[in-house]
Task: structure prediction
Amino acid sequence: MLNAIEMGQLDEAKKDFAWALRQDDDEVLFSLAEQLYALGFLQQAQRTYLKLLDRYPDEDELRTALAEIAIDNGNNDEALAYLAQIKPDSDAYLQSLLVAADLYQTEEQFEVTEEKLQTAYQIAPEEPAVLFALGEYYYATGRFALAIRYYFALIQAGVAEFARVDIAGRLGMAYAQSGKFDQALGYLKQVAPGFMTADIRFQTGLTQLNLGQLKEAIITLKELIDEDNQYASAYPALAQAYLQENHLSQALKTAQEGLGVDEYNENLFTLAADIAGRLGEFDLVKKYLQSAHALAPENLAISLKLSNYYLSQGDHDANIDLLQGIETDSVDPQVEWNLAQSYQAKEDFARASQAFETARPTYWDNPTFLKQLIYFYQESGERDLLMDTLDHALTVTPDDPELNELDGQLRDF
Result:
């Protein structure tokens, strides 16, 4: 039957399967069920296990296998029914706990999942399947310090691979997610070539970037893109590495190539805008920031970057239109400050005054804000507010020559 499946002769495989159920001995049938399950022939595997269970009703290993098939088929109640028949004194109880944990995790009942896994750990604290299951559970739920504990226990036990997963790679990924980049890189470099997935290669490059190993990060990320040019996350990381190396043209080119792969990544548009700004490519800055804002109009950080660009270019109408369109639950002081500057430039002093006043509590000790507020009061003719703000500004930056000169002029007036 297995040979027929391999050759694509499914009709012949069906005949052989029927013959096997009638004629093969139980040991062969058990092996056949395992291989059919591994190949994804769930219905045939289930039929085989059920036939064996009829003959061996006390064999709980068959119930765990049937429960796994039921989970794969989305029949969780059926799986639970099989697992409930397995008692703690059964040889299959440990495996049933792992299968139950898998079931409850698919249902996002994480407390029950953890309870099942910890029960299994109490029974067999050195069992690789238990250690791996705990590591995978804690990794999947973002509890990386705990995941590290169980992956490390596997490494100490000499288990380098489990369920076609490289444990050093998992350990390196968990350390990286915990921000422990030195330890992460040490394990990521131990990953065997056959297990060097795109995700592990990307995490290696990202870890090198976080450690300031820029040249190494560039090599790693370029190799990843050469192997898989659709791996979108590699482009912003590589662009950041080039940027930190001050290779601005290459950084911009990389970001642009990334946008060709992922044209809906507002963060990559923002990064491209930042790089273009350093290169003095202000038309590109505007283009990329407007694209980022169009993709994520609710992202205040992007809106403020675009606002700052409009201010730098003196495009006050565009700035006002942008910021007035922002919908937030509360007033943002940076929005008000930016609005105040545009209203002042358009000599709308009433609105500028209101915006400055709203922003003032937040920026009252900010030298740049204070200086702008002083010149606003000077332009709008509010001498008392001007002098009060100037006095405060001189306590914040007493050695500022511009403010001291202005203070002298106003005192003499």
About this structure: The chain has 25 helices and two strands. The radius of gyration is 32 Å.
